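Run log, item B.
One chain of 241 residues. Sequence copied directly from the ordering sheet:
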Amino acid sequence: MQLGLLLCDHIDPEFRREGGDYPDLFFDRIREVMPGARLQVFDAEAGELPDPDSRLDGWIISGARHDAFGDYPWLARLKHRVHALLAAGQRVAGVCFGHQLLALMHGGAVNRAPAGWGIGNHGYRWQAEGAPDYRLLVSHQDQVLRLPEQARLLAGSAFCPHAAFTLDDRVMGVQGHPEFTRDYARFLMEQRRYRFDDERYRQAMDSVELPHHGAEVMGMMLAFLRGESPHVPGETGNPEG
């Protein structure tokens, strides 16, 4: 499977020297699920975008510290190119910022999360009846407040009601970070320590030790990009403990 990563940010050098950049995290998680997959990276934030006629098996829009509703020249160019990819019949999945961006591009609403920052390891409930809950590492202050009109809600929580969705058979968004490692989740919380009170910080740090379903959710995203109907991860796989 040949995938394109539309990169919208970089990890700070302090962590990157030891733990890698976002493409490394994505590639490691993708290869964990699909060993033969290939990943082509386009640094969208730096203005690097695929040619209009590029065709891959699927595209992923990364997370970012930026606002999906921001007025950045590079973001306008990215949205134009993503529209072109979708118009050509290709499939696109978004993670965190990418999830929010895809919702906005199709008529949804995104803004600051009413409950404040989401940090640590969060649990979500699938809409499918009888499906088990799942957990992902998170770091976000924005979230999708209203889904596009024709979107199908896949999962949510009290904190983040629109945590995963699909639109037709070509768009998928996931708010949590299936690619995150525990080390990077901790690094981000330490970086932003001043934003959180002591109790919230301690609870989030403790939660990072809980199992999460990063590999299972990544597998679901890759299945969607292959053209398969989304299945509920965690039914047969084991969470990362």
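Observations after the first pass:
- Helices lie at 13-19, 22-33, 73-87, 97-105, 182-191, 198-207, 214-225.
- The mean pLDDT is 93.
Flagged for discussion on Thursday.
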